[in-house]
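Changelog-adjacent note: as of this version, every example in the card shows the full chain rather than a window. The one below runs 297 residues end to end.
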Amino acid sequence: MKIEQILILHLYDKKQITLQGIGTFKLDPSFSLPEHSDKKIIFPNDVITFEYDPKVTEDALLIDAIVQHTKKIKPLATSDLDSFLMAGKELLILNNPFTLNGIGSIVKTQNGDFKFVPPHFPKAKIPKPKSVTKNKPRSVLFKNHAFILSNKGKKNLIIIVVISAVSLTAWGLINLFMNKKKDKKLQEQTQKLPANHTATLKSIDTIKTLQLINTAKARDINNKYTFKIVFLETNNHEEALKKLNEITGFGHSPVMYKSGSVYKIAMPFSLPLTDTLHIKDSLDQFYSLGKGFVEIE
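Full-length structure tokens:
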């Protein structure tokens, strides 16, 4: 049997125990266990008192109880008790509690004295009786009401998610279709014209009219535009008119003008000079096949 168990039995039997160098524990004489109780001894919080006395000596009756329960000779019983108390005092020196299971704990105060702390046994929680619902058959009819509401909310959320996904998909398909349509139109414009198309020119009157219009544009170009992208230079007047007629047929408004003996076909712009490179690259793809250049007014 362990020393702690012997301490509990001896305290209950003799109503007090003395631990040398620590003090004396006293049990309320009115405390008693129920008869024929097989349960272990548990002392309530308010039945044990402690008197601190560092000069107290060995409890002879406690030594006899240890001898009785352990069947050891008295010197060995005394040695076991001394070892037990020495370990407890080391805990107190380190400001740790010296716990006596079933009795309580001894702690060291700021003044260096020892103080007894009774054991704390939490009160058992008594479960509250379940309230009996009147009209129980009626509650059975609505027992799944919360479940139905929960499922309804989930269904609404799923519907919203599905509608959002369908809308995003439709929007993406529309954008994809519009982009493909623009790309197709751009490719059609950039394709080379058939040979028979370039060979078929408008009538002489139409060519002369275009020539007069674009000549007038050329005279006034310095007053309206900041730069031009030139994509054809030729000494052949007929070739220049042919190119002018070809580009005009696409719905654009190029100009033809003469610089010395050279005819030039160009596209004028009244934009900032910072846009020249971007516009030149775009026109190179359609008209000059990379041979265009910029003329700044």
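Structural remarks: Residues 3-117 form one domain.
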